[in-house]
Design a protein that fits this description.
Largest sheet: 5 strands, antiparallel
Shape: elongated
Order of helices and strands: HEEHHHHEEEHHEHEEHEEHHEE
CATH class of the largest domain: Alpha Beta
Structural class: alpha+beta
Radius of gyration: 27 Å
Strand content: 15-25%
Length: about 375
């Protein structure tokens, strides 16, 4: 539905549509007079829907905002909210700074809402801090792993020489234990060092690796101790363009995330175990201080137990695991692969939903190709 170009000057409305701050104008009965594009995105709703239902449902969903609006009307003064947690009609949460202006100089208007979504800035700051910590820890672990490889190689060589000299075959059982255990340590060290191969980048349809992961996990799910059959939910955007990535490495990342979810649900006897894959394109997203015009987000979500708060900040560090028999390397390796693709993995959880999101730029290009891809409107998560 086309927005009306009355109520406020056309030029003003066009300028408001260019803002990243959400603008909402209401009359005295909380009916919508105007909302800009950022406002539709913030509240995850279209102008047409808001025009029919009014803004009352949002006030019911967000009593802190309703109280501030009532105060602004009563005092006829501007009321501000800092770092308010607001929820859209579909349950999407935003952290925002809000300004509520009563009786704005707009025809028929009673309230002007200005909402600046600061969650992005908070996320960027938090991601930068975590990224710096991950890099430092990874460098420390890699340095330690390199130092361990040399004496471990000497140990293996000595055990092999000793095995040749032993006169009794029964004694070779002990040298075999040394060789087997040292090989296991060497494999662990190689995993600690992370992927050695540079990504073999090519254009791929992201839904093909997701289907491959589903096939692999479906087989594994039949062999786990899940109380009930694993349920799959898919929410794919078919308009997503091909992404520039290493197919095998993406499968490894998505398999690590999905397998962790499967193991967590199995070990905790989750009722109605469910794994959900979701793909969306987001617009103007910052990854490690770089603003990307378009990014791809792949959600791997499960309804298993929440991650303990004590582990949330260190999830992607090497050797950190919440499972009794976990190596703590799967998420660290997955994050390393994501970073090799100029992307990252995010983690969020709420009751009944644990979500890992792989985020990759869509604006990359192969050598000699134009870096300007097709334009896609962001689909709210």
């Amino acid at each position: 539905m086309t927005k009306p170009e009355i109520k406020m000057p056309i030029r003003t409305a066009r300028l408001a549509d260019a803002l990243t701050t959400a603008i909402v104008v209401l009359d005295a009965q909380d009916k919508l007079l105007y909302i800009n594009s950022a406002g539709e995105q913030f509240w995850d709703v279209s102008y047409g829907v808001l025009l029919k239902q009014g803004f009352a449902p949002f006030f019911e969903q967000n009593p802190i905002l309703a109280k501030a609006v009532a105060e602004a009307r009563l005092t006829e003064q501007v009321v501000t909210l800092r770092e308010a947690e607001l929820v859209s009609i579909h349950g999407q949460t935003h952290i925002a700074d809000c300004a509520i202006t009563p009786s704005p100089d707009i025809s028929g208007a009673d309230i002007l809402l200005e909402l600046a979504d600061i969650e992005r800035h908070m996320r960027i700051t938090r991601d930068a801090q975590l990224h710096a910590m991950q890099i430092s820890t990874r460098q420390l672990v890699r340095g330690l792993a390199h130092e361990l490889k040399n004496p471990l190689g000497g140990l293996q060589g000595a055990a092999q020489l000793l095995e040749r000299e032993l006169p009794n075959a029964d004694l070779r059982e002990f040298t075999q234990i040394i060789l087997n255990e040292s090989s296991r340590l060497k494999n662990l060290i190689d995993r600690m060092l992370g992927p050695n191969n540079r990504p073999q980048m090519q254009r791929i349809n992201i839904h093909e690796p997701l289907e491959q992961v589903r096939r692999l996990l479906s087989i594994e799910a039949e062999e786990t101790l899940l109380q009930e059959p694993l349920q799959w939910h898919f929410d794919f955007d078919p308009s997503i363009p091909d992404v520039l990535a290493d197919r095998d490495q993406l499968i490894q990342v998505l398999l690590n995330l999905s397998r962790n979810a499967l193991q967590a649900m199995s070990e905790n006897d989750t009722n109605n175990p469910t794994l959900r894959f979701k793909t969306r394109v987001l617009r103007r997203f910052t990854i490690h201080q770089t603003l990307h015009r378009l990014v791809l987000r792949i959600d791997v979500e499960n309804n298993g137990p929440p991650v303990p708060d004590t582990l949330v900040e260190s999830l992607f560090l090497p050797m950190v695991s919440g499972r009794a028999h976990g190596s703590g390397l799967g998420l660290s390796i997955a994050q390393t692969i994501a970073e090799q693709h100029q992307g990252l993995i995010e983690f969020k959880q709420k009751p009944g939903a644990v979500r890992f999101s792989l985020i990759l730029p869509l604006s990359q290009s192969l050598p000699g190709q134009d870096t300007q891809g097709q334009h896609h409107q962001e689909t709210p998560p």
